[in-house]
Amino acid sequence: MARYLRVFIALGVVAFGGGPALIPAAHAADDPPADVTATVTADAKAVGAAVKRDAKVVADAAKEAAQQVAVAAKGVAKEVAAAAKQSAKKAKAAVKPDKTGDKPTGNQDDKPAPRK
User: Tell me, what's the pLDDT at 25?
Assistant: First the structure.
């Protein structure tokens, strides 16, 4: 498309009396600068370095967050274990009869008769 645009500009300039002096200017406007490759390469390297740096920052933050989560989970696990241990002691105390020597008071008639 740009190639045809240059041709139309050149024909229009020549047809309307602009002369051949403007034709090279129209052609030169479409040509990229000579150092564009070096500029693009430098920009690509800068972007690559920035992406690499940002990825490292994200990875470090994720690692730190994972360590904080692990510490918090460890604390919660200890609390849960302590609560479970305390509950187990309470359940054991509720099931186990008192060793004070007192006989349980209850209706003795509820016991089945001994076998013969």
Answer: 53
How far is it, in rounded angstroms, from Cα 62 to Cα 49? 20
The whole-number pLDDT of residue 74 equals 97
For the chain, give the secondary structure using H, E and C.
CHHHHHHHHHHHHHHCCCCCCCHHHHHHHHCCCCCHHHHHHHHHHHHHHHHHHHHHHHHHHHHHHHHHHHHHHHHHHHHHHHHHHHHHHHHHHHHCCCCCCCCCCCCHHHCCCCCC
d(CA 49, CA 57): 12
Q: Which residue has the higher pLDDT, 63 or 105?
A: 63
pTM for the predicted model, two decimal places = 0.43
**Which residues fall within 8 angstroms of residue 81, CB to CB, at 6 or more apart?**
none
Angle at the Cα of 63 from the Cα atoms of 60 and 67, rounded to 5 degrees: 140
Q: What is the pLDDT of the chain when averaged over all its residues?
A: 77
Between CA 63 and CA 6 the distance in angstroms is 57
Give the per-residue pLDDT at 100.
61
